[in-house]
Write a structure and sequence with these properties.
mainly alpha; globular
């Protein structure tokens, strides 16, 4: 599980990539399917704290792994990538039920996690069955699962509106400016503002540094935000059509 020989053995779109992704989306589907049962008072509270606890524990395990291997640094190990922030964010929302924070960050955090699952950048390209392989998919998978639980079981999807895209846009700019300062101070690459994470990721769609930052800002963010907002748009459109036919 900690065999260094597994470095550079992970390959995207092989079974070791597709199986965990299918499991994650399968669990998400089951949560949506059984949302009414999970919404029972005794169950929902336990599930909220269970999901928050597990995602925090896996983050602790990652930091312990880096500390024991002597690789923990301020430049690389703080939870300031979008997915690291999403880990903390989903746990925070599950525990506190803070709706304002959720609506201001949902699209930013979910898009980051989904894109990471579709185009993984596992540290060191550690393949199955290395610890970093499992930790990567557990971490990003739980972000998606937690957001699905918050949306459908906690019913936060009901108040999602188009203006929340604007809130998320400004939240993303805020996170980027904060991380730019951290990167300059510690020589890091949080949010991949200083360089791309590696080959065969979604960043390859937008060119080389620094042009990919500009292209993501102008084209990527609006497109991805609207793609992820589409289910909410369809929901609202169907509601309007039903009201007109009544």
């Amino acid at each position: 599980m900690f065999n260094p020989a597994l470095e550079n053995t992970f390959r995207s779109f092989t079974l070791s990539h597709l199986i965990p992704v299918l499991i994650i989306f399968g669990i998400s589907y089951l949560i949506i399917l059984h949302q009414e049962r999970l919404r029972r008072p005794k169950i929902i509270k336990k599930m909220r704290y269970l999901l928050a606890g597990v995602i925090i524990l896996q983050e602790i395990s990652l930091n312990l792994y880096r500390i024991l291997n002597g690789t923990w640094t301020l430049a690389e190990s703080l939870p300031f990538h979008l997915c690291g922030l999403a880990v903390l964010s989903t746990a925070f929302v599950l525990i506190t039920e803070n709706k304002k924070y959720f609506y201001a960050t949902f699209f930013v955090m979910l898009i980051g996690a989904v894109m990471a699952l579709l185009t993984p950048s596992v540290e060191g390209n550690m393949g199955f069955p290395h610890f970093r392989y499992f930790q990567f998919f557990v971490s990003h998978g739980l972000i998606v699962i937690n957001f699905v639980f918050i949306l459908f079981v906690m019913n936060y999807h009901q108040r999602m509106t188009y203006r929340h895209l604007i809130y998320n846009f400004f939240s993303l700019i805020g996170f980027a400016l904060f991380n730019l300062i951290i990167n300059l101070l510690f020589g890091g690459n949080y949010m991949f503002l200083m360089a791309k994470p590696g080959p065969n990721t979604a960043f390859d769609l937008f060119g080389e540094h620094p042009w990919y930052l500009i292209n993501i800002f102008i084209f990527g963010i609006p497109v991805f935000f609207h793609i992820f907002y589409l289910p909410f748009f369809i929901r609202d459109l169907r509601s309007k059509i039903k009201l007109k036919t009544v």
